[in-house]
Amino acid sequence: MQSHEGSGTDKRGQPFADEMFFLVQMNSLEGPLLGFHRVFSGVERKVSFEVSVEARSCPAEDTSHVFTIKPAGFRDTLEVVVTYNCICGCTGWAEQESSKCSGNGTYACGLCECDPGYLGAKCECEEGANGNMYHNMCREVEGKPICSGRGECSCNQCICYESEFGNIYGSFCECDDFSCARYKGVLCSGHGECHCGECKCHAGYIGDNCNCSTETDSCVSNDGQMCSGRGNCVCGKCQCTEPGAFGETCEKCPTCPGVCSTKRDCIECKLFNSGRLADNQTCQKHCKDEIITPVDVLKTDDQNSVLCAYPVNDCVMKFTYSELASGKSNLTVLREPECGSAPDVLTILLVVGGSILLIGIVLLAIWKLLVTIHDRREFARFQSERSRARYEMASNPLYRKPISTHSLDFTFNKLNKSYNGTVD
Prior knowledge:
Layout: E1 2-10, E2 20-28, E3 31-34, E4 37-38, E5 48-55, E6 64-71, E7 78-83, E8 105-108, E9 111-114, E10 118-119, E11 125-126, E12 151-154, E13 157-160, E14 168-169, E15 175-176, E16 182-183, E17 186-187, E18 192-195, E19 198-201, E20 205-206, E21 212-213, E22 231-234, E23 237-240, H1 259-271, H2 276-280, H3 283-286, E24 290-295, E25 306-312, E26 315-323, E27 329-334, H4 345-388
Parallel strand pairs: 24-27
Antiparallel strand pairs: 1-4, 1-6, 2-3, 2-5, 6-7, 8-9, 10-11, 12-13, 14-15, 16-17, 18-19, 20-21, 22-23, 25-26, 26-27
């Protein structure tokens, strides 16, 4: 067993335990050990002793003490000489009846030591005088309680009460360091100091209760965007603004327009070891929450899944995307892309020719229909105008009868072959 003990005497050989306080602490490889006795086993163990000495009072001037420290059973000793410095540097100068003390005290070391019968920081109050005349000086505003109800007015000054919750201070005891806003029961969220009812936030925090972090690192998604470009970073957390988006960085969004291209990168790098992410060797970082299942036949009748497709060498790769309750993404992918058969040239020509012929017939029929409608309208208008016409009966002055009558006087004698008569 090893132990250590302390003893001391002054120059006269008198003990001075009442004037000084000793604290002895042993330190070993096992950590600090308090007390005066400790059992150690083994050899070559290093033990150090720390001794703290505190003066309980100031003895007479030029007093010094000597004490010896030694471990029991060893010859080695340590003698310590203690001297006291109980005089401040400013006590050698003092101004009696100083104007700074209202002429009623001695000014020394920045404080007034009032003469008997006077009180106050500047010795401005007379002891035993009626204090009611000073109460108005202890009100912040007329009508408010004296010293805000949290202190006593003494000689124009508020002496604030002590509180188990913290400090009460201020000229009118109006301030404290425990009445600030709390977050989850913690004053100023543990990220600030309470000063006179207001939280003074530490660097990197804002808000009435300092619960809002200004850091944005936690809002950066795996693709380097703030909240995946689908929200705003507020108090160190993403608030998603895109409909259907969720997740710590709004990275989950089955209904967002660009979700298929995002999941495509993960499929290419994890399933086919190709694509943009495979080249950058960041596949595991960006696609750690994607569960990819290859299938031969893709089911597309799940209403909770989004069907995506993208071209691959004149073919089409299809997959479905849905979010699981655990927050991971479930991707079901075709093992091989879908590729259609080569087009039939003859079929294409027949279809194109038939389409052109059909269009020509339709246009011709439309033209014929329009012409018929136009002719019917013109004929109807002609008939209408004809029925409205009215004519008077009269002879045409230019008209000549086809039969003409002429009278000729001649004599015809039958014998002599002449005749006298009229011929029409």
